[in-house]
């Protein structure tokens, strides 16, 4: 080991400073600092876990420090305004501005390259429609062939699933209070209905996951009695069976025993001191027909509240099997929520976040087209979620086939989230995604309630202006022909010609399958109502 190498410059400097300061009787602070640095350097040389510290004593710590603040350096000094990783500065800024009632106007023209492939726009009308009331709503659970006891009038823009436990108590209170004030719904996430969801009385869609939190027996199985008790709450407007989520489809989860507080245990119906497991699949059913029978059971136990399911699209034959089960049994859910693979989560394996789950556009098209082709689309409403922030995001998604949109991270930004991407560390700097009482104290609930409501209202106002410019009076009138996409510098196409759309009943005529898009021609015959496995005969 050559101690005269430049790699050891910092350590040598610390040793020399220590010796010289002691010899000259320098003020005590100088030898104290030099001694501390010398001790760090010697420790670096002797430790065996990190090669960088052994080769670059003392200096290696500067690298670790700058690496630890790399996200902040990128975000504050280097980040491009328009690059969405996962959300651009412009996307976050529009939420902050609308939530705080700041101006959301931009000067000098677009920052987007309008000649880049993938650029999209909505064609406007030379005779715009009069701008309508921006409280756009749809009714879920009211089809005359599928009468329900308690149909629900929903906003076209709502809060997507985020559980108490993933979010702080104050964040849940603020989201639900904003939903109450703004007249839109708040998805509980699979962590069940906490006291914080109930405090402000906002409309809830209760998500039932594979752990059956809030409606489980001690062994983790589904409990009819506990479900009926929670579902009877007037605050619960709809029931959503979670099959999978876009950020980590096909992946269960574990909340370690150390992180389970008495409040979380009470909300979820789990024991203290034991890991809280969300299995990767449901135990209450095992086939498409059994799944629909379970949905009907939930609907009846809830007193007829609109009931449906949420999923990220994976194997096409599995969703086709569910649709075939609808045709076979006559049991039709009131809604389906399509969660795109670009959706977010508090924590997920990188491989799942990056490479598992169908992106929203393709997933939404598959669900919409399948229901149209099976003559079921008019009976089932479709919700969609996956990086939806602006009024254009909503309009685009509705044009492609959805009836309403959900947003999770958009409403987190309205709460003050700064995209620090530390949700999984329990050290969220703004108190949104943490159970640390001192950190979540920074999130002042009354102020954030107003910001959540403001963000929703101003986004709906922008949507009203957008559709009026297109000559429409309600977002439900948006169609693929209203959306234009650039394919190359010299070519653009309407979404209606670029993307495949089925005609009503086409899947029910075997003679038509050969001319349909390959996903239908190949996988529809493989799907079975009796099993999620493909028929390969």
Describe this entry's structure for a reader.
By secondary structure, this protein is an alpha/beta fold. The protein is built from 20 helices and 15 strands. It has helices at residues 9-24, 29-46, 51-55, 59-68, 70-78, 89-99, 169-182, 195-198, 224-231, 262-268, 288-301, 316-329, 350-355, 360-373, 391-400, 409-415, 437-440, 445-469, 495-498, 518-523; strands at residues 120-122, 137-140, 152-155, 157-159, 186-187, 204-208, 236-242, 253-255, 276-278, 307-311, 335-339, 381-385, 404-407, 483-488, 491-494. The strands form four sheets. The protein has an eight-stranded parallel beta sheet. The chain has a three-stranded antiparallel beta sheet with strand order 1-14-15. Helix 9 links the parallel strand 6 and strand 7. It is globular, with a radius of gyration of 27 Å.
Integer average pLDDT = 91
> Gyration radius, to the nearest Å?
27 Å
Poorly predicted regions are none
Percent of residues in β-strands: 5-15%
Total helical segments: 20
Large-scale geometry = globular
Helix vs. strand class: alpha/beta
| Main beta sheet strand tally, sense and closure | 8 strands, parallel
Helix content: 25-40%
How many beta-strand segments? 15
Q: Going across the major beta sheet, what is the strand order? A: 4-13-12-11-10-7-6-5
User: How far apart, in Å, are the first and last alpha carbons?
Assistant: 69 Å
């Amino acid at each position: 080991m050559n101690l005269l190498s430049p790699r050891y410059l910092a350590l040598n400097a610390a040793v020399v400073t220590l010796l010289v300061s002691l010899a000259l009787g320098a003020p005590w602070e100088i030898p104290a600092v030099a001694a501390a640095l010398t001790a760090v350097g010697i420790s670096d040389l002797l430790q065996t876990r990190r090669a960088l510290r052994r080769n670059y004593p003392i200096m290696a710590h500067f690298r670790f420090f700058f690496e630890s603040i790399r996200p902040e350096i990128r975000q504050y000094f280097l980040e491009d305004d328009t690059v969405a990783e996962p959300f651009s500065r412009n996307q976050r800024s529009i939420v902050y501005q609308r939530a705080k009632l700041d101006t959301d106007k931009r000067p000098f023209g677009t920052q987007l390259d309008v000649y880049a492939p993938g650029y999209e726009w909505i064609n406007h009308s030379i005779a715009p429609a009069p701008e309508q009331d921006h409280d756009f709503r749809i009714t879920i659970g009211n089809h005359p062939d599928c009468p329900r006891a308690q149909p629900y009038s929903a906003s076209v823009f709502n809060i997507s699933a985020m559980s108490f436990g993933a979010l702080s108590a104050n964040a849940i209170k603020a989201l639900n209070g904003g939903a109450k004030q703004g007249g839109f719904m708040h998805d509980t996430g699979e962590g069940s209905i906490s006291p914080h969801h109930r405090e402000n009385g906002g409309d809830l869609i209760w998500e039932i996951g594979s752990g059956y939190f809030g409606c489980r027996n001690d062994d983790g199985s589904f409990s009819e009695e506990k479900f009926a008790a929670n579902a009877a709450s007037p605050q619960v407007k709809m029931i959503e069976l979670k099959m999978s989520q876009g950020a980590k489809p096909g992946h269960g989860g574990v909340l370690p025993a150390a992180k389970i507080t008495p409040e979380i245990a009470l909300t979820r119906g789990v024991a203290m001191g034991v890991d809280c497991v969300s299995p990767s699949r449901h135990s209450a059913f095992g086939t498409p027909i059994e799944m629909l029978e379970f949905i009907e059971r939930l609907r009846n136990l809830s007193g007829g509240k609109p009931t449906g399911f949420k999923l990220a699209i994976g194997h096409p034959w599995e969703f086709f099997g569910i649709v075939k089960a609808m045709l076979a049994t006559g049991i039709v859910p009131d809604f389906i929520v399509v969660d795109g693979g670009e959706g977010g989560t508090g924590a997920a394996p990188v491989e799942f976040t990056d490479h598992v789950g169908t992106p929203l556009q393709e997933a939404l098209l598959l669900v919409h087209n399948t229901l149209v082709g099976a003559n079921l689309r008019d009976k089932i409403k479709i919700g969609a979620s996956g990086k939806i922030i602006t009024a254009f995001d909503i309009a685009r998604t509705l044009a492609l086939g959805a009836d309403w949109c959900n947003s999770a991270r958009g409403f987190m930004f309205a709460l003050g989230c700064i995209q620090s991407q530390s949700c999984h560390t329990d050290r969220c700097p703004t108190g949104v995604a943490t159970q640390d009482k001192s950190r979540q104290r920074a999130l002042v609930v009354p102020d954030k309630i107003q910001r959540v409501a403001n963000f929703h209202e101003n986004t709906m106002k922008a949507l009203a202006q957008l559709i009026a410019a297109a000559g429409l009076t309600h977002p439900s009138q948006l169609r693929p022909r209203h959306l234009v996409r650039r394919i190359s510098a010299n070519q653009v196409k309407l979404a209606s010609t670029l993307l495949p759309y089925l005609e009503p009943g086409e899947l029910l005529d075997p003679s038509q399958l050969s001319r349909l898009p390959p996903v239908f021609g190949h996988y529809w015959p493989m799907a079975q109502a009796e099993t999620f496995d493909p028929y390969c005969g």
